[in-house]
Amino acid sequence: MTHELMQRELIIDLSTGKHQVLPILDLHIIGPVDYGWVRFNEAARATGRVDPDILTWGGGPLAGSRIPGSRRLVFCGYSPQWRGFYVSSLGGAAYIMHRIGADFVCIKGTAPQDSVLILNHHQGEISVRLEPLDPDAIWTGHVSREVDAEDALDSDYLIGFYALQQAVFDRYRAEYDGDWLRIFAVGPAARHTSQGVIGSNQIRKGQISPIDDWAGRGGLGSRLLQRHRIAACVFGGDWEDPDLKDSKEIDGYFLENYGQPMIKVDLGATEKYRYVPGFQTGGTFGVNMHTVDDRLLSFNYRSIYQEPAARLAQHASFIRDHYLRQFNEEIIQPKHFSHCGEPCSVACKKYDRVYKKDYEPYAALGPQCGVFDQRAAEELDHFVDAMGLDAIQTGGAVAWIMELVRDGLITPEDFGLPPASAMRFDFASDPAAFDLVLASQRNADYAAEVVYALMFDERCALFRQDIRAAARALDERYGLTERGKTTTDRAVFLSHGAQGCMTPNQYWVPGMFSPMPMMGKYFVYYGLDFLPPRDLGRKCVERMVYELFNENSGICRFHRKWAEVIVDEIISAHYHFPVDYKARQFELARQIYELEGAAAQPWETGRTIDVIWQYLELWARDSLKDEDLRGWVMRFREDKWAAARAYWDEVRAGIAEAFAAGAAAIPDVLAPNQVVRVDVMARK
User: Most exposed of 146, 182, 283, 377 (fewest Cβ within 10 Å)?
Assistant: First the structure.
């Protein structure tokens, strides 16, 4: 039996507080990225602005179902960091957002003052309120009403994002039943920088849990506060979706394609994020730190210049025997696992006390900043989170600043920073020469000083700009113009248009540096294997299409091994909505490319180019027999700047070719039983 796909949008005019609840009639809209893209372009055409005053969020068409991983909350809007349309999402929150009785929310315009947005559904009615809020005062410190101020411990005293989230919870929790509410909020970075994130913790047993999640890339938290004057949103209600609750129907889709019920397929597909017996660890931190070997990026990417033996020694002594060992003993062995706030057996969230630990934040604010100890890293990461900063972007900027100070390219006193002697920022792989506890703490303390100065010291205001703009300003200030010897050349970032930029994800692969229309996410191919650059460009388009299978369905990419295969079948079969899902996601990707693709800029910094070059050298040292690889290595050795531009052009050409070739050129991804059926048909 099929059902109608009946979706609703909640449109809020922040300038007046008025709202509308309307059915979705546009057949181009299935998921939250569709919705955000359509509303963004409508507003852009109506206003003639490339940065229209509009921000959307919502869940996918399966958010009300029993299917695990299907309840990500997806935000879309103009990124003040990337300077273009951007998508960012956080886990589990659509499980609660769905209960307001709307699938998508669209805010327009600007609230009269900094405010909290209150969304609720009660007995068939959706209510919307705006109430004034002073986030700056709350960010300085808040203790929950349940804790007597005189008896409060240090752990009860919250700052930044955590303080604001708790204050909103204390003020409005009585308006909701039980745990059927959730909050997203911003931190001080949303006020002072373009890199502010949107954060949200799940609520369990009447309290905010330590499991935080982030729409962390793109600076949409800065957009939310600076343009719309919304500092937080509390949402929930009593609406219940009766759809897709039948276990037999759901299992049927998985049995037909995999020969196993949903829970077994899902657990098998998500092993990395839960627990890998062969590695005796789990989660993104555990598995990635276990397998990274000599591809670990450390000390502001300067590890790329070391011999593989030195990097392997660093991984063995600093990571495997200390940083990862601490994680395994403190989290994996006692099984401190949880989920993002929706019913999901994967339990991918690994935490110790109030510290949730994932690979990329603990890489960017860990080894990249010369930190290899959990105590030091968790203090630094938690402070950055409290400030509401993008941890990956911040780690890249802070590590760069530390190198500039260490090498004397900038004068630390000019920016209110400690002297170079306060840190230990030389590459190291021998614990006898680098005390993993004390040296890590020194570096973490220095990094925290940089973050604090960046946020609150006017002498450091230059760094509140993104890393690209800050590097340009520093080079002008110090008169550094010679190629290869500027502060810009020590930085690693991707450029978009005249001003946009993004620090890449923490994987030493060319795909993470590709000229795709939306970077800083996983809309690229990031396998370790060498591909000729034009092939890499085509592969990146393929991955963007399939990543949209997840993001545009509101499905966590940790479940992508089955989602990219059968989510289209579930939607088409259950709803009266036959759709070529691959063609639909390809068209969405192509439209984003048409708008943003021309803004991609060639690599601007020597360090970025060296990351690509040394990746190629690494494969050459591993004796990979490939003529294309050998040719590129020789070109980089002769003239790395010219070779880098040619390599970048080839990747970009592959991207253009893939979009020109159409959806039919994107390979299908098949489940085991689908492969058998295709094979039988081929033999017939």
Answer: 146
